[in-house]
Amino acid sequence: MLKRTSKIALIFVATLTIFSCKTVQQANLTEIKPFIGIWNDTTNPGSKIVFKSDGSFYNIAKEGGVQIVTHSGTFKILSNNMYVLSISDARANATYDLKGRQYANYYTLSRDQKTMKVSGYVDGRNGGKGLQWASDLVKINTLD
Question: Which residues form the domain of 62?
């Protein structure tokens, strides 16, 4: 009887543990949810950043009336004020050395999660001067 009760209790605890634990993807989605969407960079007119629910992102700039992707990769929230970009692709003629790099950036999200201030530093290409940057982002619905 004690053996059977122990077995039932063990199965109950195992089942409860399985259903109460979040998967890594669910936990990550909760962390990145405020970022997900299209953000207009009001500091740099014509620039936008898109954060996707799968943890990927891409930056867009408008050049000659055409929107082009300047760089892309993945992002991860490190804390309530810091995130990291892992840049897997960037324009070959970019002034700054982005491709294959990881950059930790700072953010402040508004209470209503519709505006965000972001800042960071990127390295210059071939030993050139780096850039300390800051941008004000506003969440929008379309890329237009």
Answer: 34-140
